[in-house]
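Handout, section B. The chain below has 244 residues.
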Amino acid sequence: MERRITSWFSQNLSTEMPLVAYGHAGPPLLMFPTAAADYLEYERFYLVESIKPFIDAGRLRAYSINSVNRYSLLNEQMPPNLKAELLTRYDRYITDEVLPLIRSNCAGGEIRPITTGASLGAFLAVNTYFRHPDLFRGVIAMSGSYDVRSYLKGYYDDNVYFNNPVDYISNINDDHYLPILRQADKILIMSGRGNYEAPERSEALSNILSAKGIPHQLDLWGHDVDHDWPWWRKMLPYALGKML
């Protein structure tokens, strides 16, 4: 399996941002880490190993990046307005910096990545896809929560709204994004029902998508399926098997 690490100073985030790429061919998958973790987390916890057959067969290229969660949502010292502003800057980092790199790597092939992540990574994957369904092809969200207001102590502004999927998806009514979303065929919202899972959060997002006429699949696994790596290592290859 080809593996390449690159890094650059992000103009949007004013810090060095590394990225790891796996594979030599196939459509791109953009992976967002959980909680406050880094771009190598999915490798350390063998999630990359779980999708290695797709990568080795040239059916997939995977890209894993850092998040800003440790500085934003999970930073108790950061004022809520700055937490929300950092999420907006992170969104620009993805579209202005990460996406051009992926397009360059995949020249001549599929240039709209599928996004994925578990836990807080699922929030980032959903937020990225639904903010830019013209730039991304779909989303695999595992064990996520899609309402970030609990991290912001009641603070609310435009940056909060446009980074809170349960809010802005409910109000999508334009003639550009909504028709694209209504033709989607690669939206998969997954959760277990076991320890530390919150399937009602996935159900809430599914209900919003259904109300907007956005096709998707809600896939809730059993009461033995916990919020933990062994299950995400099963979920992601299962989901890719359905999508690729």
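Note. The chain has one domain: 3-243. Compare this with the example in section A.
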